[in-house]
Design brief:
This protein is an alpha/beta fold. The chain contains six helices and 15 strands. The protein has one domain: Rossmann fold. The strands form five sheets. The chain has a six-stranded parallel beta sheet, with helices on both faces. A three-stranded parallel beta sheet has the order 9-11-13. The radius of gyration is 18 Å and the shape is globular. It binds uracil. The site of uracil has 10 residues, from helix 6.
Length: 210
């Protein structure tokens, strides 16, 4: 496992992930589980966010307390499956901004082409959490982070549910500065670029389109 990958193997996350993997888990349950996991994973991903001391007043006396300091957050889901992470992360940080990025692969050049992109203007002063449940080949994740960097972001983390070893390698080669947080590293990719054993098509399972 590359140094800048963190496997978040908390028992609750592993239990929920096992339920998501099952082929007969309903769309509704899949979505609920993903929202719950995104909160649990987000909690770990944000463990090192800086805090600062503030003086507050309880009903009884003044005290020193800690509050988040430093950069504000921006969540960037990679369309469309990345949307499944947004609600849970916003529950943790309701004031976070949300950018979006949509990519498709040009069938001739095989290059990732952006078809939609909308970021907050002050991306350079935010901590960006790029999200996509599946880090499969790593090409679209790497391309998405290229676009996020081109928009000015310098502090970027990547959150996924399942990564393939090949995808991690590709992604880290492109972006050694971006830490990846994942709940599982699965065996391999099949010929269609799906992760094995995986979860199937994350977008279809979240949105019930198959
Ligand atoms: N995208 C998915 O939705 N699933 C995979 O297994 C790989 C990429």
């Amino acid at each position: 496992m590359p140094d800048n990958t963190q496997l978040i193997d908390h028992p609750l996350i592993q239990h929920k992930l096992a339920m998501m993997r099952k082929k007969d888990t309903s769309t509704q349950d899949f979505r609920t589980l993903l929202r719950e996991i995104s909160m649990l994973m987000g909690y770990e991903l944000m463990r090192d966010l800086p805090t600062e001391e503030v003086i507050i007043e309880t009903p009884l006396e003044k005290m020193k307390a800690r509050k988040l300091s430093g950069k504000k957050l921006c969540i960037v889901p990679i369309l469309r499956a990345g949307l499944g992470f947004v609600d849970g992360l916003l529950q943790l940080v309701p004031a976070a901004r949300v950018g979006h990025i949509g990519l498709y692969r040009d069938p001739k050049t095989l290059e990732a082409v952006e078809y939609y992109k909308k970021f907050p203007e002050d991306l350079s002063s935010r901590c960006v959490i790029a999200v996509d449940p599946m880090l499969a080949t790593g090409h679209s994740a790497a391309a998405a982070v290229n676009f996020i960097k081109a928009a000015g972001a310098t502090d970027i983390r990547f959150l996924c549910l399942i990564a393939a070893p090949a995808g991690l390698k590709t992604f880290h080669k492109a972006h050694p500065d971006v830490h990846v947080y994942t709940a599982a590293i699965d065996r391999e990719l099949n010929d269609h670029g799906y992760i094995l054993p995986g979860i199937g098509d994350a977008g279809d399972r979240i949105f019930g389109t198959k």
